[in-house]
């Protein structure tokens, strides 16, 4: 009798342990499921990047928040105190949300992160994180400080020669981020200084072609466009080449010049 009681007690305890273990290990099957692709993006300042957040939310999306940090600190300029509320996918159970972002000049070499948080109608939530890496673009480098021409080398002269005039050596260009140009002629003026007004500049996406335009101060409709091949561009040195048509002076229509610019 005593033995039977012991066996029954052991079975009861074992059943209770199994029951409570199963109850404890119960998996919630209706949690929101998120996929972010890609979860890391990199690019040059001024250019767009994008990523797609895909979600399966059985109970329907109630809230969708995107928060932003820079160097692990909340970016208060983003949304409202660093949090942007998205309503595009409210109520949906399946969605694909495309996030577009333009890489910022002031975020170069900083740790920028975005957190995506989805909350469903039952208060259950899921999150994904995006890491953004911004590299200084050529356009940002050009606009970062004024430039002076330190060499204007005439490659096709016979023999090749330096063509930078003394009166040009204290001139400097400021290429603004809005694509406008300012030219300061310095104190040593050349004969034709001020005859041309510089207007706009641009750099192709591959950073191989630089273009600037200017017009005659006497006839604004007379616009000249100069197109340069960029040889190299760093924050300390900028080298590019252009071909001029000098046939009116008895030379060829393909006279090659190499310009070297350095920070002013």
How many strands in all? Answer: 18
Q: Which architecture of the largest domain does the CATH hierarchy give at level 2?
A: Beta Barrel
Radius of gyration: 32 Å
What proportion strand? Answer: over 45%
Mean pLDDT: 92
> Structurally, how many domains make up the residues?
2
Summary of the model, kept short:
The protein has helices spanning 2-24, 138-143; strands at residues 33-37, 40-44, 48-56, 61-70, 73-74, 83-85, 94-102, 112-120, 125-135, 147-154, 161-162, 172-175, 181-184, 196-203, 209-216, 223-233, 238-244, 255-263.
Structure commentary:
This protein starts with a helix and ends with a strand. The protein has a seven-stranded antiparallel β-sheet with strand order 11-10-18-17-16-15-14. Strands 2, 4, 5, 6, 8 and 9 form a six-stranded mixed β-sheet that branches. A three-stranded antiparallel β-sheet has the order 1-3-7, with no helix packed on it. It folds into two domains: 33-136, Immunoglobulins (Immunoglobulin-like), CATH 2.60.40; 139-263, Lipocalin, CATH 2.40.128. Helix content is 11%, strand content 47%. The protein has two helices and 18 strands. The chain is mainly β. Keywords: Signal. This is DUF4595 domain-containing protein. It comes from Panacibacter ginsenosidivorans.
How do the helices and strands line up, and which of them pair or pack?
Blueprint: H1 2-24, E1 33-37, E2 40-44, E3 48-56, E4 61-70, E5 73-74, E6 83-85, E7 94-102, E8 112-120, E9 125-135, H2 138-143, E10 147-154, E11 161-162, E12 172-175, E13 181-184, E14 196-203, E15 209-216, E16 223-233, E17 238-244, E18 255-263
Parallel strand pairs: 2-9
Antiparallel strand pairs: 1-3, 3-7, 4-5, 4-6, 4-8, 8-9, 10-11, 10-18, 12-13, 14-15, 15-16, 16-17, 17-18
């Amino acid at each position: 009798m005593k033995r039977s009681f012991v066996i029954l007690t052991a079975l009861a305890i074992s059943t209770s342990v199994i029951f409570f273990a199963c109850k404890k290990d119960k998996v919630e099957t209706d949690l929101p499921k998120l996929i972010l692709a890609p979860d890391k993006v990199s690019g040059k300042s001024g250019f767009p990047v994008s990523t797609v957040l895909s979600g399966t939310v059985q109970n329907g999306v109630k809230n969708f928040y995107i928060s932003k940090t820079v160097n692990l600190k909340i970016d208060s300029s983003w949304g409202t105190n660093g949090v942007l509320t998205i309503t595009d996918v409210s109520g949906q159970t399946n969605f694909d949300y495309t996030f577009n972002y333009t890489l910022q000049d002031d975020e170069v070499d900083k740790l920028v992160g975005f957190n995506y948080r989805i909350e469903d109608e039952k208060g259950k939530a899921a999150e994904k994180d995006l890491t953004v890496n911004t590299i200084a673009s050529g356009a940002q480098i050009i606009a970062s400080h004024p430039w002076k021409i330190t060499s204007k080398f005439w490659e096709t002269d016979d023999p090749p020669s330096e063509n930078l005039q003394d009166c040009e050596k204290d001139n400097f260009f400021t290429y603004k981020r809005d694509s406008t140009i300012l030219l300061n002629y310095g104190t040593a003026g050349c004969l034709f200084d001020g005859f041309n007004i510089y207007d706009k500049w641009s750099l192709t996406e591959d950073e191989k072609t630089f273009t600037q335009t200017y017009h005659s101060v006497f006839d604004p409709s007379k616009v000249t466009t100069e197109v340069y091949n960029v040889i190299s561009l760093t924050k300390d040195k900028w080298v590019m080449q252009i071909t001029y048509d000098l046939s009116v002076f008895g030379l060829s229509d393909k006279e090659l010049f190499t310009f070297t610019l350095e920070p002013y």
